[in-house]
Amino acid sequence: MCQLRAVLERDGKEEPVMESITALDVVDDGVVLSTFFEEPMKIDGVRVRRIDFLGGLLVLQPIGESGGSHGDH
């Protein structure tokens, strides 16, 4: 079973958001993160920047901030 840890990347720093994420839903204005034992957490104004499946890391980024050399799509 694979569980992710979420961080918010802002100004070159990663801020912890949630541990042991079991599900991710992308919604119009952000994401909803779920775990086994907590209520789902909706985070507005972010997008998925990167998912590292081997490292168990989900990186979120505020919408409108540049994502580095990959550019915006």
Task: Give a quick rundown of the structure.
With 73 residues, this protein is mostly beta strands.
Give the helix tally. Answer: 0
General form? globular
Q: How many whole angstroms does the radius of gyration measure?
A: 12 Å
User: Main β-sheet: number of strands, strand sense, barrel status?
Assistant: 4 strands, mixed
* Spatial gap, N to C terminus: 31 Å
Task: Give unreliable regions as ranges.
Answer: 69-73
Portion in beta strands: over 45%
What is the number of E strands? 7
Give the H and E element order.
EEEEEEE
Provide a descriptive summary of the structure in words.
The protein has one domain. The radius of gyration is 12 Å and the shape is globular. Strand 4 (30-34) and strand 5 form a beta hairpin. The strands form two sheets. The chain has a four-stranded mixed sheet, with no helix packed on it. A three-stranded antiparallel sheet has the order 3-4-5, with no helix packed on it. Residues 69-73 have low confidence and may be disordered. It is 0% helix and 59% strand. It is built from no helices and seven strands.
What is the element layout, followed by pairings?
Blueprint: E1 4-10, E2 13-21, E3 23-27, E4 30-34, E5 41-44, E6 46-52, E7 57-62
Parallel strand pairs: 1-7
Antiparallel strand pairs: 1-2, 3-4, 4-5, 6-7
